[in-house]
């Protein structure tokens, strides 16, 4: 029996029952950047206990080279936590 690649997988494989997960889709344009990060980035706290404001910081940084973005993010995290990442 052949496989029909013209159809999506059964719903149970893409949306587990009772998972409470909402699926969102986004249209990407040429030049968009996707940043995947561990939860430790947003869980990083400063001396007062404030979480790292990733969304706000990203909005203020210029678009461009992904490597430059990672350098900015790393330095920003170091500044936010006082110089040491765990």
Summarize the structure in words:
The mean pLDDT is about 80. The protein contains 4 helices and no strands. The chain has about 90 residues and is mostly helical. The N and C termini lie far apart (about 50 Å).
Helix and strand sequence: HHHH
Rg, please? 19 Å
Number of helices: 4
Strand content: under 5%
Count the E strands.
0
Helix content: 25-40%
Q: Any descriptors?
A:
single chain; 0% strand; flat; mainly alpha; 86 residues; 36% helix; 4 helices
Task: Describe the secondary structure blueprint for this structure.
Blueprint: H1 11-14, H2 40-43, H3 54-60, H4 66-81
Summarize the structure.
With about 90 residues, the chain is mostly helical.
């Amino acid at each position: 029996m052949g496989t029909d690649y013209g159809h999506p997988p059964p719903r149970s494989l893409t949306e587990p029952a009772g998972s409470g997960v909402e699926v969102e889709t986004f249209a990407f344009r040429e030049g968009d950047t996707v940043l995947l990060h561990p939860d430790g980035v947003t869980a990083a706290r400063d001396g007062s206990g404030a979480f790292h404001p990733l969304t706000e910081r990203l909005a203020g940084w210029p678009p461009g080279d992904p490597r430059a973005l990672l350098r900015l993010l790393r330095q920003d995290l170091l500044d936010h936590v006082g110089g040491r990442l765990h």
